[in-house]
Amino acid sequence: MLRILIIVLFIAIVAALFSSLWSLLKRPSADGATANRLLWRVILSALLILALIYGFNTGQLQPHAPW
Fold first, then answer.
1. Which residue windows are transmembrane per the record (predicted)?
2. 8 A C-beta contact, residue 10 and residue 47
3. Residues contacting 55, CB < 8 A, separation 6+
4. In this model, does residue 53 exceed pLDDT 80?
5. Helix axis angle, 2-26 to 33-58, nearest 10°
6. Domain membership flag for residue 67
């Protein structure tokens, strides 16, 4: 369940990033839409980091690094 949440958060971050890019290219004026979408990206990134920390601390996620 946690892995699905992490994947959904990652996809939402990428979607918010491209949404803000689209907003910037479409309306480069200072209406604040791009800043709001980038704020959502930062919030989603913080939630992703918290989910990863929770997963590693509870043992639901295991590192598979070769070093």
1. 6-26, 38-57
2. no
3. 2, 6, 61
4. yes
5. 160
6. no
Q: What letter represents residue 59's amino acid?
A: G
pLDDT, tens digit, for every residue of 1-51? 999 999 999 999 999 999 998 988 888 776 788 888 899 999 999 999 999
Residue located via tokens 């907003």: 23
Please report the DSSP string for 7-46 in residue order.
HHHHHHHHHHHHHHHHHHHH--SSSSHHHHHHHHHHHHHH
Tell me, yes or no, whether 65 lies in a domain.
no
5 neighbors 55 (Cβ within 8 angstroms): no
Global pTM?
0.85
Domain that holds residue 53: 2-58
Looking at residue 26, its pLDDT comes to 86
Q: How many domains does the chain have?
A: 1
